[in-house]
């Protein structure tokens, strides 16, 4: 059966080239870093789904419980017949908790992992035959435009999973300001925000006993070998994750176990023993602190929902003129 998914490929050769430049700039910086976007090839996306199943990793199950319990209230606030745009759609799992309640005119999944995106949106189109489904392969952390041909009365962006925490607060404000420019006045943003909590809960969530998060982090090195012509030994690095209480963020690193030189895209990058590559930050917010940040980007909070333990929050923001 022919797929009903309308695919929009926004990953041009120019964008791919800029990814190489961005990767090398981070590797040559002091301290070294990469953007979390480099985690998400097909294998990385599969490993992240596995992380979400680990008992220590509370964000996914907590956010899903909020969505499940509040679906009717969310539908009342958001309204029906919207163009529902999921940023970082992944397996399109959480959106399923909202589709029947929201009854959107159409759905657009946006993700950087092309194959994973196509698989998930095809399953969504199969399971919801009444839904108009679009898929855009794009790096939503860069300036982008909504594809042409989306139906619906108004766009509502859905950004679950506390992915906003991967940006610094300054980057988060700039990202939200960019979304504000894409949304008309009255357009909406339904966003998941991980809340500040005890260090023990946070440290455990990013150091699961099964080692899935470690495998996810180390898969970055495998992807560099597969797609960026890297010459390196993944076994010469180890996973490290910890809560930086001063900055209210989890940090993930790949730590070099020895002095070594790796080559990426034809360039040599030197590591000293113990030197790390900072692969991800995950900032945590208070409920009102995040609403204040969103306000600086042109949004007003219209509603929010949280779990009884105060681990996670979903906020509905409206774009102001």
Automatic annotation (TrEMBL):
UniProt GO MF annotations: L-histidine N(alpha)-methyltransferase activity
SUPFAM superfamilies: S-adenosyl-L-methionine-dependent methyltransferases
Gene3D superfamilies per the UniProt record, alphabetical: Vaccinia Virus protein VP39 (3.40.50.150)
Keyword Transferase tagged: yes
UniProt keyword annotations, A-Z: Methyltransferase, Transferase
Pfam family membership, one: Methyltransf_33
Keyword Methyltransferase: yes
Superkingdom, taxonomy of origin: Bacteria
Domain Histidine-specific methyltransferase SAM-dependent: 20-317
GO biological process: methylation
Alphabetical list of InterPro entries matching this protein: EgtD, EgtD_Methyltrsf_superfamily, MeTrfase_dom, MeTrfase_EgtD-like, SAM-dependent_MTases_sf
EC identifiers of the protein: 2.1.1.44
PANTHER family: ERGOTHIONEINE BIOSYNTHESIS PROTEIN 1
NCBIfam families per the UniProt record, alphabetical: egtD_ergothio (TIGR03438)
Protein name (Swiss-Prot/TrEMBL): L-histidine N(Alpha)-methyltransferase
Organism this protein belongs to: Billgrantia kenyensis
Lineage, uppermost ranks: Bacteria, Pseudomonadati, Pseudomonadota, Gammaproteobacteria, Oceanospirillales
């Amino acid at each position: 059966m022919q797929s009903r998914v309308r695919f929009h490929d926004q990953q041009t050769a120019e964008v791919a080239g800029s990814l190489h430049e961005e990767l090398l700039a981070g590797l040559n910086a002091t301290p070294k870093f990469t953007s979390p976007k480099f985690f998400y090839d097909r294998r990385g996306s599969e490993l992240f789904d596995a992380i979400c199943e680990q008992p220590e990793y509370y964000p996914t199950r907590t956010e899903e419980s909020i969505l499940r319990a509040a679906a009717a209230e969310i539908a009342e606030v958001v309204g029906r017949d919207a163009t529902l745009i999921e940023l970082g759609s992944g397996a399109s799992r959480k959106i399923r908790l909202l589709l029947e309640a929201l009854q959107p005119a159409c759905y657009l999944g946006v993700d950087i992992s092309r194959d994973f995106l196509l698989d998930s949106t095809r399953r969504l189109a199969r399971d919801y035959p009444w839904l108009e489904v679009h898929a855009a392969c794009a790096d939503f952390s860069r300036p982008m435009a909504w594809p042409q041909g989306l139906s619906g009365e108004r766009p509502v962006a859905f950004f679950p999973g506390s992915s906003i925490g991967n940006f610094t607060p300054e980057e988060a404000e700039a990202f939200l300001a960019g979304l504000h420019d894409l949304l008309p006045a009255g357009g909406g943003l339904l966003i998941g925000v991980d809340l500040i909590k005890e260090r023990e809960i946070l440290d455990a969530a990013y150091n699961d006993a099964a080692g899935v998060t470690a495998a996810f982090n180390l898969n970055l090195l495998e992807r560099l070998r597969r797609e960026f012509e890297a010459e390196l030994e993944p076994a010469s690095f180890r996973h490290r994750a910890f809560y930086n209480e001063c900055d209210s963020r989890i940090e993930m690193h790949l730590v070099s176990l020895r002095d070594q030189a790796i080559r990426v895209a034809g360039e040599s990058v030197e590591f000293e023993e113990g030197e790390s590559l900072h692969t991800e930050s995950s900032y945590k917010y208070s409920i009102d602190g995040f609403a204040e940040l969103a306000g600086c980007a042109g949004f007003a909070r219209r509603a929010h929902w949280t779990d009884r333990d105060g681990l996670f929050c979903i906020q509905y923001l409206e774009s102001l003129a």
